[in-house]
């Protein structure tokens, strides 16, 4: 195994001081920390775990995270909560943790997040801005993949990138980000026939499909770079969408799970909160 | 040459009665024809030609088209005009003909179109809806490609589709429409290295790059389907992005230029106007 390990944790360690400085700069002028409201509209354990992870990192960086739990969630109460947080001058960023409870209209709730506070780029408006190449907040997990590639100096422009998965949180926005960086981008999914034939064409393979150890070494071109966005729990252990060992035997670089994209995602969300705070207060003339 | 000719003009002839019926149904209940405002914010000849073509087709179908010319266009006056049309109860659809004059902020003007009247799917909101898989109006040229494929029974699901070009009017929205129809989609562009190697992988190649006769037979897999969205004027003649004869010798089907995607695009815009009219008046309780 000769593949380089795309260590997102190490990168996050290096970059966290920048985010902490941004948070401090805001706090110095505003007299309070930047503040993110994480809305939990589910009893789902995974959502709680993600939220708790964000809180731990945030605390160390000087970003305040409020957990807003919606009991017995209904779409109307969720939308009302988001609207209330949207109007709250003390809240800089809003993130709805997914999954949400069955039957809740996540789209309506996400669209209630004002663009200036949409730190995970979830609203239709934010997605439209991403799709049309305008500036704005983009889904943090997709942005984290780009940050990981950039952090390790992986060239994107002119390369062939294959994204496996077409979710609205990762696959589709990642495809747009790679396209904006001048990659030739292919998006694959469950209806793709011979997946290996497609991934073997790629200089960069991004796995975001939610199938444990789905990508094996035989599906990767020698020397390719593999970024694994999968977070599957198998036997109580977190495993990615790539079979790390067999892929690492062929690829030139692979991101591990955990410790790859995940730490960067959290950091990027918190950086967006600090930025949102500074931008909003800049507008308000503070 | 054995390739089937994907004749958009013939399809448009077959479908125009449906659109005319929709327009009539509205007229019967509202006492006026559905009405599209085409905004011309340029002296560009091409834009005027497109607008004139829409007017001719519209007249025959019972859709009223108003040409709204902005003299000495500035972004502010263009946005004001669009806002006025947006508030006008007698206007059902708004389309800003492109290109617009140099220095005009097309995005600001497009974003001033209310979603219910955005019959060419141009606003950030409409594009966000398309990108996130919500219902709504989509860019008509991209929709016309799908209509042409459907009209000739070309299977999309599970096939490899390659889109050459990443414009916001065709390439990117078409990529999303093909993805929503379960194709494995690759988007290529000027920075794609070996374009022929990519297009040869495709079951369906869509050309939307604006380079006359750019795709040749050697870049197409035998039996593939080629849809040509290019409209290039060469020596006073309209030619596509595909070299029709050499492509037709290899492909199983090719759309000609003119007479392929173009006639369907116009028809789809006018159908959207009739639909917009009926939907708005349904909401207003007429």
Give a verbal description of the structure.
Two copies of one chain form a homodimer. With 286 residues, chain A is α/β, with parallel strands linked by helices. Chain A folds into two domains: 30-114, Rossmann fold; 140-262, Rossmann fold, CATH 3.40.50. Chain A is built from ten helices and eleven strands. Chain A has helices at residues 8-30, 45-61, 75-87, 106-110, 124-131, 140-151, 171-180, 195-199, 244-248, 261-283; strands at residues 4-5, 35-40, 64-69, 93-97, 160-164, 184-188, 204-207, 225-228, 232-234, 237-239, 253-254. In chain A, strands 1-11-8-7-5-6 form a six-stranded parallel beta sheet. In chain A, strands 3-2-4 form a three-stranded parallel beta sheet, with helices on both faces. In chain A, helix 2 links the parallel strand 2 (35-40) and strand 3 (64-69). In chain A, helix 6 (140-151) packs across helix 10. The longest helix of chain A is centred in the first third of the chain and has 23 residues, at 8-30. Chain A is globular and about 50 Å long. The termini of chain A are far apart. The mean pLDDT of chain A is 94. At the A-B interface, helix 5, helix 7 and strand 6 of A face helix 5, helix 7 and strand 6 of B.
